[in-house]
Amino acid sequence: MSNVTIKDLAKLSGVSLATVSRVINQKGYVSQELSAKVLRAVEETGYRPNQAARSLVQRRTDSIGVIVHNLHDPFFYDLLRGFEQAAAEISYNVLFASVLGGDTKSKEKYLQYLSGGVVDAVVMYGSYMSDEEMLRCASPSSSVDYMLIENDIQGFKCNKLLINNVQGAYSAVEYLMGKGHTDIAHICGNPNKKVTIDRLNGYLAAMRDKGLEVQDGYLQQLSADYRNGYARMKSLLALKNRPTAVFCSDDAIASYAVRAALDAGLRVPEDISIMGFDFQTNLPERYRGPDLTTVKQPLYQIGFDSITLLAGQLKKGRFDQPERKVYDTQIVEQETVCGPCR
Amino acid sequence: MSNVTIKDLAKLSGVSLATVSRVINQKGYVSQELSAKVLRAVEETGYRPNQAARSLVQRRTDSIGVIVHNLHDPFFYDLLRGFEQAAAEISYNVLFASVLGGDTKSKEKYLQYLSGGVVDAVVMYGSYMSDEEMLRCASPSSSVDYMLIENDIQGFKCNKLLINNVQGAYSAVEYLMGKGHTDIAHICGNPNKKVTIDRLNGYLAAMRDKGLEVQDGYLQQLSADYRNGYARMKSLLALKNRPTAVFCSDDAIASYAVRAALDAGLRVPEDISIMGFDFQTNLPERYRGPDLTTVKQPLYQIGFDSITLLAGQLKKGRFDQPERKVYDTQIVEQETVCGPCR
DNA sequence: ATCCCATAAGTAAACGTTTACACAAGAAAT
DNA sequence: ATTTCTTGTGTAAACGTTTACTTATGGGAT
Q: The whole model's pTM is what?
């Protein structure tokens, strides 16, 4: 019963291999009579085509692979919805691979595996890989098409979807200024990551452009993880020239900053405004403060576009003009920002 | 540069196909000399083995597929972590396929596709499929191994991991009784789903066993979706014989029940205790009430076990003894239950 | 009557691997 | 001196499809 092949079907229905194939793929000419015979055989045997053989000769799989780390992280909510929606609208199968944390070994494994023709295209979010590692696993000139999200790796010529973190931070500061703030501090994240640096630069550029001074102690660098945002906020609150607004490098940090302010007996946002940036890494503890005013990344759109663009390129057959798009962010007004009460 | 094959490598390094294969798979005898030559050719060409050809002849892919609906749903948090952790510990690749909502068409598509030898085993969560649909896509006697989670479909002989919803609901009632409650109501969910019916039966059985009466109006049936939990709770509160505790069919319902109680000016849990059941379907609105006391499903364990069990069976080669496990739940004491204040 | 085209069906060659088998040479054991 | 074992290499047959090519038949247009 197991592993029925096209050959069995041919024997069973008394036709040739080619005819069976034609019936199954509804392609080419075949008479009603033989067609019926073959279909009956398919029914009887529970035949299911072998995808390996099929894709070996067709040199395509009609599938797209997606590699991310920590698929379970709520951060991926919107991105995943984008992937899923796009997947539902196209005829390609979309398969996800997830690796834990910074497990680059596994990431390489999956990238190599998928690049071996398991899928026709691969989209990859982030990646802690270096250019060389990347090239070792995937060849940009191979027959599989690549799409990188939030990863502007240089040596690898392929499709790229990026988020304008500089503009995002810049607009956050503008927004705070629009509310009347001038004493604006920044808690910046891990200074070895490009996102962090971009957001820091956006903050600095906006301050400079608008003629605002980054006062003494206004630049707080996170040590360890986001929980340290609590301590950093405490430092800011202890300043003589206490800021009236704090822009944080991401929402996780911001949530701890809010907690610190509330614990210090301040009201948020009346006494101090706090702003985050849409990067909700998974918080083990439930956040109970006011909803964060934040800078939102268009992750749904990016997820959707990544799949859709790839599908388009695959359909055309040749993908020599890699796409490169930079997405702007948007401010979401919620409960942690208001004008300064002075 | 694209699509280098083993043949190219053989030509380039002046050896036979077999030798190249042996070098690449580090299998069989091959001299240092030739090995070096081949490896150099691999390096130069950026060769990557074609997985389709490989799995065609080996009749295995060393991968396991997972099909779920709404992968983005936070409900899957623990389940996904279980899958991921197991995936990281075994040598198999794990690939996820996600379909939107109740899109059985897509689910069938993926099941058929994966069953065509794209993976060696498939785990499937839930499923709105009937026996016949299931059989149409996947043959239990095929060479791919199946694992069903929370789906006790009858006509399909394969591995099954189930949750003891009856026991879960039963223990919830016992827990409430232990706190001193006797007037315990139940808001039950969609009565066409097996989960709901099981939980209802658990509630009823516990009440009967302990000699408690299900008083007039104590059984509330949800109409429409979980938001209706608000109205159902209102109905309970309007009763002359108002219950002191309410057990809800799932957490989503419970969260609306809590809101209704709070809106009615009652304190939770001092005035009324409310219990949920771990099924956190995605709530668009943020829940701000006290943390729910609830019945927790061992989803992490189930995710982990599903992959691990399959990997074990695959390694053994023959999977004729399907596994069937029923998991008990556990009560998580949080903030919505205390003794009755009478 | 001839030619061409649409329909129908079969034969056989790919696709890129792995692997069973054959063969050889040298070393070790009889 | 013969056998046996280990190491090393190559040849060719799979694996299950798709598809280019070939052949045949019956009609419609010339």
A: 0.93
